[in-house]
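Is this the right way to post structure tokens for a design question? Let me know if I should format differently. Anyway, here goes:
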């Protein structure tokens, strides 16, 4: 298994995984060809040194993904907070421990980049994901709030 930064050609596989669950189908537009907005977003992510879009590849096939964002702020003595988003494992690879390996990789990467904590949000409609994150040592310390514009 290879953990690496995503490339332009990986975008279709990433979006396919993002759209492959009940919530993802509601917010993603997985069509062929993909809408240009996905490639524009990828280009922005790729240019930003505080963003890492990662894929897991096995025998040439992309089977997992996540995005790490590194947020510099003044609090915590000028600390860096790592944010993990868009974690997905290909449907036929789930339940085999790949998610835990992906998270262990992300935890190590956040520490390498000097983050003092790694945080995530998860939809309350994903109770299995919440249990998984708790098993990895994440704790629910705050109540998250969002303001959607569309």
């Amino acid at each position: 298994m290879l953990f690496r930064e995503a490339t332009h050609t990986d975008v279709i596989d990433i979006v396919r995984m993002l759209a492959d669950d009940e919530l993802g189908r509601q917010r993603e537009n997985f069509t062929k060809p993909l809408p240009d907005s996905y490639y524009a977003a990828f280009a922005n992510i790729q240019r930003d040194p505080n963003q890492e879009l990662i894929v897991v590849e096995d025998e040439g096939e992309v089977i997992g993904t996540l995005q790490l964002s590194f947020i510099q702020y003044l609090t915590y003595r000028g600390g860096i907070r790592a944010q993990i988003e868009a974690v997905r494992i290909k449907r036929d690879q789930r339940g085999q421990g790949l998610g835990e390996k992906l998270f262990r990789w992300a935890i190590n990467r956040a520490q390498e980049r000097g983050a003092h904590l790694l945080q995530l949000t998860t939809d309350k409609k994903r109770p299995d994901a919440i249990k998984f994150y708790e098993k990895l040592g994440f704790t629910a310390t705050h109540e998250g709030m969002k303001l959607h514009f569309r």
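Format looks fine. Someone answered above. Worth noting: The CA atoms of residues 16 and 31 lie 9 Å apart. The mean pLDDT is 95.
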